[in-house]
Design a protein that fits this description.
- The protein is an alpha/beta fold.
- It has a domain at 1-69: Alpha-Beta Plaits.
- Helix content is 38%, strand content 22%.
- It has helices at residues 15-25, 50-56, 89-97, 100-111, 117-126, 135-142, 150-159, 172-182, 210-224, 241-246, 257-260, 274-278; strands spanning 2-7, 31-34, 38-43, 62-67, 75-78, 163-171, 186-190, 192-195, 198-203, 231-235, 249-253, 265-267.
- The strands form three sheets. Strands 7-6-5-10-11-12 form a six-stranded parallel β-sheet, with helices on both faces.
- α10 (241-246) links the parallel β10 and β11 (249-253).
- α3 runs antiparallel to α4.
- The longest helix has 15 residues, at 210-224.
- The chain is elongated, with a radius of gyration of 20 Å.
- The two termini are 28 Å apart.
- Keywords: Amino-acid biosynthesis, Hydrolase, Magnesium, Metal-binding, Serine biosynthesis.
- Its cofactor is Mg(2+).
- It comes from Pelagimonas phthalicica.
Length: 287
């Protein structure tokens, strides 16, 4: 059995749209997980026109279809930049260094898969040379905002015994803080090298990129004694694709077009609580 999920901005999901789709595809009884925001219905098989209908509704709703079996996951594996937080940390550091526009362009191209991740990271970090180490605290305090729904996602899954890991191509100086703010059980990222209280313009080796995120998926699931099918992974950039395509539920959240094209599950209207709706949690179940 399959589940058809509809998630929209709060108060904008129309009952008529849900009923019309259910009737057109011969689905079962619709269940509202959150009035005006999230609904779903079971379906015996995927409709031939699913992709066409999904494309026609892009501006209104996140329409996804996936197997009903095993939908509640035991672990969340999350990217940080533009996923658990609303910024790219390296772009914010670059603003402090006066090279913001240049670095943002490189970041956007790297996240869209147009540039080699490692090379792009090395190039951008070099532009941060001689920034005082204290700039990290400044950026965290003044420039970083959490993505809505993150605390609720982690608290709800952890109440059910879930595990939460933050795996970023960014930097430990930020993941350690964000991990603590949100309640992650562990975090992995790259290291910004510092000497005499200043950034050296270099990043520690080996660089944590796409393959390292897959390794994290393999290592942490093995440690916990669970399978990759028990994981919901979430990210937005090209370096997330490895873990997104391997996890049991890989969600492209407000992702780059090239990333969405390679992910079956896409969320553009909802926030991080959409990952709970996809697992079948109702809003009343949220912590």
């Amino acid at each position: 059995m399959l589940i058809v999920s509809l998630i929209a901005k709060p108060g904008t999901l129309d009952t008529a749209l849900v009923d019309n789709l259910r009737n057109a595809w011969g689905g079962g009884v619709a269940v509202w997980l959150s009035e005006g925001e999230a609904a779903e219905f079971p379906l015996a098989q995927a409709p031939e026109n699913f992709d066409e209908v999904r494309a026609s509704l892009l501006d209104q709703v996140d329409l996804n279809i996936f197997p009903e079996a095993g939908r509640k996951k035991r672990m969340v594996l999350a990217d940080m930049d533009s996923t658990m937080i609303q910024q790219e940390c390296i772009d914010e550091l670059a603003e402090e260094a006066g090279v913001g526009a240049h670095v943002k362009d490189i970041t956007a191209r790297a996240m869209n898969g147009e540039l080699d991740f490692d090379g792009a990271l090395i190039e951008r970090v070099a532009l941060l040379k001689d920034l005082p180490e204290s700039v990290i605290d400044t950026v965290v305090a003044n420039r970083i905002t959490l993505m809505p729904g993150g605390k609720t996602l982690l608290a709800t899954m952890k109440q059910d015994g879930g595990y939460a890991a933050l795996v970023s191509g960014g930097f430990t100086a930020f993941t350690s803080r964000v991990s603590q703010m949100l309640g992650f059980d562990e975090n992995r990222a790259n290291t910004l090298l510092v000497a005499d209280g200043k950034l050296t313009g270099e990043v520690g080796r080996p660089i944590l990129g796409r393959e390292a995120k897959v390794e994290a998926l393999e290592q942490i699931t093995a440690k916990l004694g669970i399978s990759e099918a028990d994981v919901v992974a979430v990210g937005d950039g090209a370096n997330d694709l490895g873990m997104l395509t391997r996890a049991g539920m890989g969600v492209a959240l407000h992702a780059k077009p090239s990333v969405q094209a390679q992910c079956n599950l896409r969320v553009n209207h909802g926030d991080l609580t959409a990952l709970l709706y996809l697992q079948g949690y109702a809003k009343a179940d949220f912590v």
